[in-house]
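Figure 3 (text version): structure tokens given as input.
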């Protein structure tokens, strides 16, 4: 392994199970073996570096800028860089050494930078002895260098600001790059080391490592030496080990690989006008999901999300012709009359769909062939002219299974009415309009199904839950009427069982054929089965006669 002299550190690798990222980076830097860190420029590339087995990440300024589509001249602000780092840090468990350029200003900017880096568990920063705004080291010649004392101030300020004792500050010496020679590089290394730098990075743009090795011989391990062999890439890694280098930064190779790969795939798809040629040469969508840990989210959802209740199915009773609508229902049933450009039933189905109710069985009768909407199931009551609502409901008995809604086919209501009904407590809950008697609501002679409840509507918080139903019939005295049944019922799974039992009883006792839903509800209550009422105040309508239709068309 390496024959270089080892820098001393009080913090060496230990058997501790969990170390901070800064402590991990410190251990790598101070260890006798040569360590390598690999460039990343965003959360994805950082994950890939970790996946490859690297012990650390170089958050390259050149790569992060380029990935953002800007130049490595501090065109991306330091907080924009910080945002990238936050994603990289969150996405990985290995330490990140960030390329902090010049520290983005003077000592004061370095202080703020280091505090923010520590907050985001960034393990260390490398700052270079140039001036803000910086230029990449491989651009141009003889870039100006910072005054040594001023740069030492930046180092001290950074070290004084770290909130993790293990945070690493690497001082980067640009003297060789700028043509100032080995002695100047060593003078600077010594000053920066004394100012508190944990390591020095000696940079070179030569194609051989000669000047780097000359530096490291003279430096003799006074502090760890970090290098970036982008230009002297042919030098064997064993030579770095043999010359006392502590850490190698592979500085921009993921970015450059991405550029090559993205160019190849884009131009191929452009030229071939097809994805077929590239599909097997690029990462699969499955791999994409794996990289970001999609399965963890699925597990977490099963742990933390409340199990969603399956939406009830719905049975819509739409068999009647609706003779009171005269010529409008000669060739189609009233559920199919036009209400402002759409059949009434299509509007009803859309409202149910909006609340998650998708399994809808419509009981057809009169002119059944005209009831032909998409997304509904149909069953037929071919005896619609001689039978009542309960017979129609029985035609849909196969759909009476588990939680169910039963709705008349000639009503419309706001979606919240269904949502509130589904959420309401109770095995059998019916919706009633407490404003049943308001002026102009109905044609004066119109018969409605009146309900009497255990408590009248109050208009206060008391109305929030359903109230027990006491009676339901068209002929309740006005003084005893608390609302109008709108033709919408919710059954829980138990409620559905009660209804099916009652249908069987009604079949057996002969009351089945002409019975309507209020008769069914009355029989259930007589057997001691609780039925409740959810009050609403308007926000619904039914279409029974020309008066209702005019109102419906106005409302839509
Ligand atoms: C970087 O990766 O941004 C560096 C290394 O600073 S270099 O581009 O070699 O200057
Ligand atoms: Mg850089």
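Below: residues designed for each position.
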């Amino acid at each position: 392994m390496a024959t270089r002299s080892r820098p001393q550190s009080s913090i060496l690798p230990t058997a501790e199970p969990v170390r901070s990222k800064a402590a991990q980076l410190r251990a790598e830097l101070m260890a006798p073996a040569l360590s390598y860190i690999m460039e990343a420029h965003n959360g994805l590339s950082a994950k890939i570096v970790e996946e490859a087995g690297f012990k650390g990440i170089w958050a390259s300024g050149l790569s992060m800028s380029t990935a953002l589509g800007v130049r490595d001249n501090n065109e991306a602000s330091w907080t924009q860089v910080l945002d990238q780092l936050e994603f990289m840090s969150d996405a990985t468990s290995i330490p990140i050494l960030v390329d902090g350029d010049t520290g983005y200003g003077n000592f004061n900017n370095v202080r703020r930078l280091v505090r923010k880096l520590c907050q985001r568990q960034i393990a260390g920063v490398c700052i270079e002895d140039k001036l803000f705004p910086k230029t990449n080291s491989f651009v141009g010649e003889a870039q100006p260098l910072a005054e040594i004392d001023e740069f030492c101030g930046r180092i001290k300020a950074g070290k004084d600001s770290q909130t993790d004792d293990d945070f690493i500050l690497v001082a980067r010496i640009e003297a060789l790059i700028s043509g100032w020679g080995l002695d100047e590089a060593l003078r600077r290394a010594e000053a920066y080391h004394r100012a508190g730098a944990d390591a020095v990075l000696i940079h070179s743009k030569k194609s051989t490592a000669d000047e780097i090795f000359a530096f490291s011989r003279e430096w003799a391990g006074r502090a760890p030496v970090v290098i970036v062999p982008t230009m002297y890439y042919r030098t064997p890694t064993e030579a770095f080990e043999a010359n006392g280098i502590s850490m190698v930064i592979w500085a921009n190779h993921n970015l450059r690989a991405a550029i090559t790969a993205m160019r190849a795939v884009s131009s191929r798809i452009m030229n071939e006008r097809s994805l077929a040629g590239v599909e097997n040469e690029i990462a699969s969508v499955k791999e994409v999901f794996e990289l970001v840990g999609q399965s963890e989210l699925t597990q977490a959802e099963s742990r933390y999300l409340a199990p969603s209740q399956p939406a009830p199915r719905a049975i819509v009773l739409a068999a009647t012709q609706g003779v009171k609508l005269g010529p409008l229902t000669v060739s189609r049933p009233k559920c199919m009359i036009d209400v402002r450009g759409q059949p009434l039933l299509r509007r009803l189905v859309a409202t149910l769909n909006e609340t998650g109710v998708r399994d809808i069985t419509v009981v057809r009768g009169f002119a059944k062939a005209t009831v032909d909407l998409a997304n509904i199931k149909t069953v037929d009551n071919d005896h619609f002219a001689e039978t009542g609502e309960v017979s129609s409901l029985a035609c849909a008995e196969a759909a009476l299974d588990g939680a169910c809604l039963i709705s008349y086919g000639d009503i419309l209501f706001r979606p919240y009415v269904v949502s509130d009904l589904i959420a309401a407590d109770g095995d059998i809950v019916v919706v009633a309009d407490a404003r049943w008697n308001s002026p102009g609501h109905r044609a004066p002679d119109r018969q409605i199904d009146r309900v009497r409840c255990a408590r009248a509507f109050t208009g206060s918080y008391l109305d929030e839950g359903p109230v027990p139903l006491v009676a339901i019939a068209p002929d309740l005295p006005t003084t005893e009427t608390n609302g109008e049944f709108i033709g919408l019922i919710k059954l829980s799974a138990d409620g559905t069982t009660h209804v099916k039992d009652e249908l069987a009883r009604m079949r057996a006792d002969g009351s089945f054929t002409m019975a309507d839903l209020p008769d069914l509800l009355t029989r259930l209550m007589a057997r001691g089965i609780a039925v409740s009422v959810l009050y609403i105040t308007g926000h619904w309508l039914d279409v029974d006669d020309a008066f209702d239709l005019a109102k419906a068309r106005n409302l839509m």
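The first strand starts at residue 35 and ends at 40.
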